[in-house]
Each structure stands twice: as structure tokens, then as C-alpha cells.
Phytocyanin domain-containing protein
Amino acid sequence: MGSNFVQALFAMLLIASMMAVSTGANKDWQHGNYTGWGYNHAPYHLNKTNGPNKIVVGGSENWHYGFNYADWSLKNGPFYVQDTLVFKYDPPNDTTRPHSVYMLPNLWSFINCDLSQARMVGSPTQGGGDGLQFVLKSWQPYYFACGEHGGAHCKDGTMRFFVFPKLRGWHN
């Protein structure tokens, strides 16, 4: 009973965070402040971007065990439809543990690190070089996790995060 309550609470917090991230960047719209500086001197709003971006997941940390990717995604958003996430990780060898990238089908699978219905989008050997590139093609939540060691990297090492890309907006 207690674990169901904790999971439900976690789900509510995740949804609230997702909504806060998607609306927080636009908090001044109702006041006509499109620049984010307290006054409106520009003909665009804060979220105007010139086109798709390539974003390295984890920044200089890349994709590895023990880094908090949920925190990274909240601090590095917003993400937009047609942006490309780049997962960089070393192929497995004698000193490097394998990593992979799975896309989980829903919030419940994400919360529980349940990979049974997940789809592998990056094998342990695909993260080298320029990295595995994943385009956020539509306006929907994307749930990512490392699927190695039976999901232990997801559960124990915080190798999971979600993004809900925004539509690229223009305001004249």
C-alpha cells in the first residue's frame, strides 16, 4: 500500500514538474514581457529559436552511470520539436561498462524503470564517435533510460530522464 502511494505521489510530482517547465519559461507572457528582462523591447518572445538544436545529453558529462539526468533535463530545457538529442557513451571494453538508450512507452514504465515494453533506440556500441542522435519528431513526452544490467542503471544510477518538447513558437 505504502509503495503505491509513493509511486502515485512521484507521478504527480513528475507531472507538476513537466507542466512547470513547459509554462515557466513563458511566465511573463500575460504581462507583455517577451524578453524576460521586465520590459518589452524586442518583437519576439523568450522562446524564439532559429531552428532545431543538437543537444548532448548530460552536456560534458555525456551518458554514464551515476549522473542525474532528470535534473540535467530540467535545468537544460526547454527542448523543442525537431531538436536532436545526442547520446554520447563509450562502447563497452575491459574498463567501461556498457550503456544503451531505451525509449519507454509511458510514465508508469518510466517511474518503475520497467523496460519490458521499451524500445531500444541505441545499442551499447552506438554511442561512440559523434554519438547516437535521436530527433524529437513530435509534440509528446519522451521517456529515456539506460537498459543495461536489467534496468539497474535506470533504477539505481539515475540514468533516466524525460522531455516534453515544445512547439517552436514565433511572435511578431
